[in-house]
Description:
By secondary structure, this protein is of the alpha+beta class. The chain is built from 20 helices and 17 strands. It has four domains: about 5-110, Phosphorylase Kinase, domain 1, CATH 3.30.200; about 115-290, Transferase(Phosphotransferase), domain 1 (Orthogonal Bundle), CATH 1.10.510; about 320-440 and about 490-515, CATH 2.40.50.140; about 520-555, no CATH class. The protein has helices at about 5-15, 15-20, 25, 70-85, 120-125, 130-135, 135-150, 210-225, 230-235, 245-250, 255-260, 265-275, 285-290, 325-330, 375-385, 430-435, 460-465, 490-495, 520-535, 540-555; strands spanning about 30, 40, 45-55, 55-65, 90-100, 105-110, 115-120, 160-165, 170, 320, 335-340, 345-350, 355-360, 370-375, 395-405, 410-415, 425. The longest helix is centred in the C-terminal third of the chain and has 19 residues, at about 520-535.
Amino acid sequence: xxxxxxxxxxxxxxxxxxxxxxxxxxxxxxxxxxxxxxxxxxxxxxxxxxxxxxxxxxxxxxxxxxxxxxxxxxxxxxxxxxxxxxxxxxxxxxxxxxxxxxxxxxxxxxxxxxxxxxxxxxxxxxxxxxxxxxxxxxxxxxxxxxxxxxxxxxxxxxxxxxxxxxxxxxxxxxxxxxxxxxxxxxxxxxxxxxxxxxxxxxxxxxxxxxxxxxxxxxxxxxxxxxxxxxxxxxxxxxxxxxxxxxxxxxxxxxxxxxxxxxxxxxxxxxxxxxxxxxxxxxxxxxxxxxxxxxxxxxxxxxxxxxxxxxxxxxxxxxxxxxxxxxxxxxxxxxxxxxxxxxxxxxxxxxxxxxxxxxxxxxxxxxxxxxxxxxxxxxxxxxxxxxxxxxxxxxxxxxxxxxxxxxxxxxxxxxxxxxxxxxxxxxxxxxxxxxxxxxxxxxxxxxxxxxxxxxxxxxxxxxxxxxxxxxxxxxxxxxxxxxxxxxxxxxxxxxxxxxxxxxxxxxxxxxxxxxxxxxxxxxxxxxxxxxxxxxxxxxxxxxxxxxxxxxxxxxx
Length: 555
């Protein structure tokens, strides 16, 4: 049976009392986004929602890809979590009849919500305080050592599945978890490509599958703590410095060359180059890697070839052309990579005086896609001393979750909220964009089965937004988790003395809904024209029409 799309889950979660079978979830409230609708958090093949009931919080994970033996897996994982006293796990259960979409029930994972930061977000926020990052290294070593001693594996050890809360590390999302009693099953996933050994396949499913990922994270954390500028140079919001290309070409990897210049890490770089060339089953444990207590052949690293080669392009997520609204609509609620040309922008303030920027793919009002930067996003750009307006007229690759809303003129708008500058990568031009659009996402062991959509589904859309205020208010509702207050000094420094609005777009004091709509002028002209005709005849009609059109333009 086809699984629901992200927008269909959105519509269902809007009414928890009818969507869920679980008594606790039925009386919970979903965390809203800036538009007052449930906020989706997306992974590779799930759409996750944060629900709250008084002092209790849950993460509800809804699947957009079929997971074989899901119930059996989570029954075993649930028993393990109940018996395991280790603090870096969170409780999770599978509800086979979890969420009702239309007339059909679908499974969900109900997991304890942890109010922490993903590992890469923590690093980004603390990059000016390397001592805070260094404190995580022994914590991470202890976590990995404990997994080894339990003879279990997470299966997708990466930045998004490691949360940091008050200096402690926690693991979330157990879809690829390995337990001895599940050894007869096949793996559900081979993990994030920026953390996986070049030779890992779906055939590898045992207690050692986390070893290479652990080495990548350890070496990345150590390098960032020793040389913070490496973060700004190599972070792309989907890694801890490393990318899959670094594993495939260890001799000429710019990152490995840079890390090798850090004297205390140079021996680890030599070992890492060897590990990338080993068979997957021979990858050492993290302890063995750090100590060098494993057998590996000495290799001579040749200097990079002078010839310029085109890097291999791979993607963890679906890659979508920003000009194709139909393709974008099929992935609402999904994490994707969007490729396109940013053609204009709109800069303004909310009614609470907080600045925001809309970056459009296509000219208003006919844009196909919009990047939304709220005040907290602009603060992040300010910390990095990055002017978001440099993205205008640039070809870019953007990673994030696709959302949708309806503006006051009842137009569907597809958008993505940008939280960190690293989510947006500037491309060299149209040719590189074309190359990325030819990239397929990393192969998953089980096919993605979901109901297709060629045009926006109005019935689903109207259900989501029925009775909702469509204009962004710029601040979360009272049930939204608190966020850092925006420091306007960053924004004022960037835009001091600058005209914020290009020609043809509204001024910075105009709300998004006040953009010019020619229908107002035409309607005003018609009304006053009729009145003028009744009083003065033909010339009265002409005079009234002209006057009405001018008045209508200003409404």
